[in-house]
Here is the input.
Amino acid sequence: MDTVRLGGQGLEVSRQGLGCMGMSEFYGASNEGEAIATIHRAIELGVTFLDTADMYGVGRNEELVGRAIADRRDEVVLATKFGNVRGPDGAFLGRDGRPEYVHSACEASLRRLGVDVIDLYYQHRVDVNTPIEETVGAMKELVEAGKVRFLGLSEAAPETIRRAHGVHPITALQSEYSLWTRDPEDAVLPTVRELGIGFVAYSPLGRGFLSGEIRSPDDLDEGDFRRNHPRFQPRNFERNLDLVERVQELAEEKQVTPSQIALAWVHSRGEDVVPIPGTKRRSYLEQNAAAADLELSADELQRLEDVFPTAGDRYADMSHVNL
Here is the structure.
């Protein structure tokens, strides 16, 4: 796996990362042994950019990642996030960007991860009740204290990104981006490119839909959050299934998987766009990693783009996105 520079401050990451969220929550049953084996296999393949957050599994995901990298910390670039607050029972309690919370959240993440420094620390969602300058000011203090190396934002709007970048250089902006979700192209991508900020694409497989393996909502486990996702509701599901079939057609022609086609499309957006497909199984990880070497022609890219957009909102509640 090649490496690329993410942002303008010198952070080098693998061309494709690994999203670890589903190893602990949201996507059905978890298997910690397989999850840790998946992280180890990722490192073997050069997929060394690992993404977690304090809210995933209410801290359990950070603990899992910490156990997986305990004897190989120097081999990975470790990213985590703060700002989405949850109670011990998993209840969502809102967003918090207050400086005192930033410091306490970082200390808790360092402890759960079992590390001395976080390579890339994101504000997971913007807190509308705290000026972004105050939040990033506290994040800057973490850098100065040697607890964090680089700073990032997630799902922030252009003006917020500019204000944050004025306090301390922002290395990466993470947002959902795929054939299934192209919202960042309108204003966010031009903004981060102007400012020299890297772009990290989460859910590059459309929350697994673009894999072609979900043919019915009944294919999802009972506890899978996608059962309540707008794009997985019956009317939208059928429309989106038609789109996935076009991805499947091209995959069959090229003798690759639909997931590899979807990831190759994201890779085609530029070296400053780094996808972090999530998986909790080694077999899918290996398929995803191979997509970094798959090139699509201009005609093939156009064939894909001609059949989208997707039906349905990205979230049931879009009020917290792009603030």
